[in-house]
Write a structure and sequence with these properties.
Layout lengths: L11 H16 L3 E5 L9 H20 L6 E9 L2 E9 L6 E2 L2 E2 L10 H12 L3 E7 L2 E9 L1
Parallel strand pairs: 1-2
Antiparallel strand pairs: 2-3, 3-7, 4-5, 6-7
Helix pairs in contact: 1-2, 2-3
Length: 146
């Protein structure tokens, strides 16, 4: 069997989501790296997993359109009462936007449902989200009060 490495963040629910996407990435030959500590957080497991799941689903979709180096990196850092979580991935450099809104590749001229959901979760916890693209790298970053 070609099994992906099991990530350990200290949060079993998050580990399950990360393992699921690590397995998908391995199957699609996308390098997948996790460097996170997600224990002792005040964010619910449901919201944390929704945040990670949406970000990773978008990252896998973006990597599928890349012909060169394909990667996804998930990292976190805790600083006092804040959690900073980032998901970086390779992408084809083609970002669909309407003003400040990033548009879905699945629905024409609509902001992605996943991005809206991630923004709402961050706002619920008094935090912020940022989605940036530079050249062939896309970064989703989230700051959440913990």
């Amino acid at each position: 069997m070609n099994i992906a490495e099991i990530p350990y963040t200290g949060n079993a629910a998050a580990d399950g989501v990360l393992y699921h996407y690590a397995s998908i990435a391995k199957e699609k030959q996308i390098a997948f790296k996790v460097c996170c500590r997600l224990n002792k957080l005040s964010i619910s497991d449901t919201d944390l997993c929704c945040l990670l799941g949406n970000a990773l689903d978008n990252a896998v979709t973006a990597c599928e359109n890349v012909s060169g180096k394909r990667y996804i990196t998930v990292a976190s850092e805790k600083n006092q009462d804040m959690l900073m979580l980032t998901v970086d991935n390779s992408f084809d450099g083609n970002l669909l936007k309407n003003g400040e809104k990033i548009l879905s590749r699945k629905r024409e001229n609509e902001e992605g449902i996943g991005i809206r959901s991630m923004k709402q979760i961050c706002e619920k916890y008094g935090g912020t989200s940022r989605f940036e693209a530079e050249s062939d790298c896309f970064e989703a970053s989230f700051m959440i009060h913990i």
